[in-house]
Amino acid sequence: TNMWPKGFGVKLETITPFLGKYRPFVGRCCQTCTPKSWESLFHKNIAALGFHNVILVTEENTRYRGWLVRRLCYFLCAMDWKIAPSPDAWEKVLGSKWIQEILSGRAPGGAGEGPKPSSLRRDVQHMSGQIQASIYPFLLRIFNWALLKFLNCIFLNVQLHQGQLAMVRQAAQADTPLIFLSTHKSCLDGLLLPFLLLSQGLGVLRVAWEPQSYSPAFRALLRHLGGLFMPSEANLFLDNPKGILSRAVLSAASSSSLGLWWGALAVFRGLRGRRGCARIDFAQPFSLQEYSVNTWSRGRSRGQSLEQLLLQTVLGHWSVLPDCEKQQEWTPMSGPLMALEEEDQLLVSRLSRHVLSASIACSAVMATAVMAALLLHRHRELLENFSWLTEETLLRGFDVGFSGQLQDLVMHGLCLLHSSLSLWLLPQGDVLVLPRTGPTLTQLAHHSAALLPVFLCEAVGACAVRALLAGRVPPEGPWELQGVELLSQRELHRQTLLLLHLLPQDLLLLQPCQSSYFYCQEVLDRLIQCGLLVAEEAPGTRLTCDTGNWRFGEKMLWRSMEDFSDSDSDYEDGTDSRCFKLSQQLRCPDFFLFLCRLLSPLLTAFARAAAFLHQGKLPDTELGYTQQLHQFLLKKAQEDGSFESTDLSQAHSAVMTFKDLGVLKEQPGSTGSTLHLSPTFTTQENQEKLENFIRQFICG
Q1: Helices vs strands, H then E, count in the chain
Q2: I need a surface site. Which of 143, 464, 560, 609 has the fewest CB within 10 A?
Q3: Cα–Cα distance between 456 and 507 in angstroms, integer?
Q4: Is 660 left (phi over 0), alpha (psi -120 to 50) or beta?
Q5: Is the N-terminal amide bond of 619 cis, ω within 30° of 0?
Q6: What is the 3-state secondary structure (H, E, C) of 544-603?
Q7: Pairwise CA distance, residues 403 & 37, whole Å
Q8: Which one-letter DSSP state was computed for residue 109?
Q9: Which three-class secondary structure state does DSSP give residue 364?
Q10: What integer is the mean pLDDT of 101-114?
Q11: Rounded to an integer, what distance in angstroms lies between the CA atom of residue 63 and that of residue 563?
Q12: What is the SS3 string spanning 647-685?
């Protein structure tokens, strides 16, 4: 039997990366936090612009013509690229306000506390030399010429959207530094992005590298090519004079460079095989100054911790959740970040969530992600379902990075995933595709995770519905029996909010300016729009369509628009009594199961982390306990084949979530911090309550 019924969606012979006339634009900046940038830094005709192959260089890209030019066009083009003279970074660093305060003794660790100003000047000059060096233009041109030839050897083309490039050019016209942040989609990002910006006339990009991975000679070479290195003293304790001075030099050097992008050095391993295609996406630029001003003007509330919000509900002591936002602090607290004021740390944390949300939103969904999702969740009829899933992705405003004949795309996706698949030729001439059992399922889960941001709202809602039905009907019961149950809007909001609190923030991509209650309403709207939920009138209530007697409450009449929250609008005047039922359409059971399974790998890892509490050896370091949990996940996968729940990042997310929830307590020690089991969860009863709380959201 087909898991997806025939006739579901539209079977397309040719896949196009758009539904209407134009390709959807993704990755716009936040209209709430940066309204001016949202309007001014957007190219009005971006949808009509196409792609450009940035590694395609011919004699047309040079000032010369002829047969010799056609053979030397790479070299001649690299020689024509404009490289602005590098400013005197040492003078700018020395003239920064923070450095001057340290030299004058007005700042902690300054000259008034020990070392002489002349000695501090030498330290500043030494640290500045560790961070960056003057760029050698000829060396940079030779390096990029060699890189251009290398990229043409491993890629058929490297595509860049001309509209996105136009927005970056527009932002570069302002007399302010440009900062580029990457999601590290490829090991070549650290080389590809500087080459791309230099070749497109945007100047030399200063790239930040990790100094521990390279020899001193290699670090010196990278500095002259535009590399930045964080000095080792920057991670010293906050009260250490060397650490204070080093962080001041790093701050001044970063603010004086042409641009900054945190990345990793490209490693040339793993490039064996056939040439492929690459694509680079830029999200819409925005003004950091505008973002900072608007962020502080809206308030600085940090919310409540996960332990305050969820622990008592997990233990069964509370039935009503506190009316407060979750404290969302997941930015790694490195040395330079800890040196900032508390308000600045909060600003960096909120900014990082905005940037991560925009960067993932602008990332195109590739054919391997669609194919892996269909195979991992055991769907049949690959041709038909590949077309449907592509269409659903485009309907939700996401972009896809492929087009062409449907059969060719399916075969291309299978070819790229061949190491995780088994193909069997059937007598009828068809091909049976089965995922290989074992650790190779981890690769399918990794590719399939790229689809989670597309269906995240619906997946959260489906798991919340699953939790509501868990205590009413057996999970293995027929769909018709589950569709009889009435689900109130208040219950749906509560279960959705519980799951939102539980899931890590880097998965949800919930922007700091977006209320979690607003997100709950969006989840409910998405479930209705996709046809999984249908409105049902509760017995004894007025019909929803009877709007004649609706009135605003008196306390609603005088309130400003900023004071309206979802709790006011949704639960006022009895609207919380609205009820819903699961739709009985033929496609709904399989679609519901598909959505639930998108979150099942992570939730399964969380549930097994709860079951591991009585087996784990504590006290232990955070890294040590994460490795213990990872080995436990691998052991369970050997028993039941659930290798999609064995990723090390899932174990790390579980440990971090349990720390925030108060299950694991961190205690400082002489050799570093160690994790201890909270006294509340030393009993098996509370451990089982935690595991059952998580498992209610998992659909088998």
Answers
A1: 30, 16
A2: 560
A3: 9
A4: alpha
A5: yes
A6: CCCCCCCCCCHHHHCCCHHHCCHHHHHCCCCHHHCEEEECCCCCHHHHHHHHHHHHHHHH
A7: 32
A8: T
A9: coil
A10: 54
A11: 61
A12: CHHHHHHHHHHHHHHCCEEEECCCCCCEEEECHHHCCHH
Token couple for 270:
């793993």
For residue 512, what pLDDT band results from cuts at 50, 70 and 90?
Answer: confident
Other Cβ atoms closer than 10 A to 37: 22
Tell me the C-alpha distance between 284 and 35, whole Å: 12
Of 432-446, 558-572, 594-608, the range with the highest mean pLDDT is 594-608
Q: Cα–Cα distances in Å, from 699 out to 280, 512, 594?
A: 36, 30, 10
Q: Are 371 and 365 in contact (CB under 8 A)?
A: no
C-alpha dist (Å) from residue 199 to 78, 163, 205, 283, 304: 8, 16, 11, 19, 48
- For residue 94, count other CB atoms closer than 10 A to its CB: 17
Helix H or strand E segment including 432: strand 431-435
Of the chain, the percentage scoring pLDDT greater than 70 comes to: 72
pLDDT in tens, 275-320: 677 888 888 888 888 888 888 776 656 678 888 889 999 998 877 7
* Residue 414 CB coordination number (10 Å): 19
At 446-468, the pLDDT tens digits run 899 889 999 999 999 999 999 99
Amino acid at 159: Q
Structure tokens at 19: 């539904």
> Can you tell me which residue has the tokens 């233990």?
315
Which tens digits make up the pLDDT trace of 524-577?
Answer: 999 999 889 998 865 555 555 554 444 444 444 444 444 444 444 444 445 566
Do residues 264 and 214 lie in contact, with contact meaning Cβ atoms separated by under 8 Å?
Answer: no
Tokens (6 digits) for 84? 């602005």
Please tell me the distance from the alpha carbon of residue 495 to that of residue 565, in angstroms, as a whole number.
18
Query: What amino acid is encoded at 57 in this protein?
Result: V
Ranges 112-116, 478-482, 570-574: which has the least confidence: 570-574
**421 membership: H or E segment, kind and range:** strand 421-425
* Domain 601-696 CATH assignment equals 1.10.10: yes
How far apart CA 512 and CA 469 sit, in angstroms, is: 31
Q: What is the pTM of this model?
A: 0.80
Q: Are 127 and 247 in contact (CB under 8 A)?
A: no
* pLDDT of 335 strictly over 80: no
* Residue 473 confidence class, pLDDT cut points 50, 70, 90: confident
Which pair of structure tokens corresponds to residue 107?
């700042």
* Residues present in the chain in total: 700
178-217 b/e (C-beta count within 10 Å ≥ 16 → b): bebbbeeeebbbbbbbbbbbbbeebbbbbbbbebeebeee
First to last CA, the chain: 19
Q: Tell the residue number behind the tokens 């066009």, with chain if given.
A: 73
Q: How far is CA 88 from the centre of its chain?
A: 36
Using only C-alpha atoms, the chain has a radius of gyration, in whole angstroms, of 28
Asked whether the predicted pLDDT for residue 245 surpasses 60, the reply is: no
Written in H, E and C, the secondary structure of 162-195 is HHHHHHHHHHHCCCCCEEEECCCCCCCHHHHHHH
What whole-number distance in Å separates Cα of residue 574 and Cα of residue 577? 6
Query: Degrees (nearest 5) of the Cα angle 345, 121, 86?
Result: 75
Six-digit token string for 634: 């691998």
* Contact indicator for 390, 403 with CB cutoff of 8 Å: no
In this model, does residue 256 exceed pLDDT 90? no
Structure tokens that stand for 523 in this block:
């989840």
Question: How far is Cα 638 from Cα 280, in angstroms, rounded to an integer?
Answer: 38
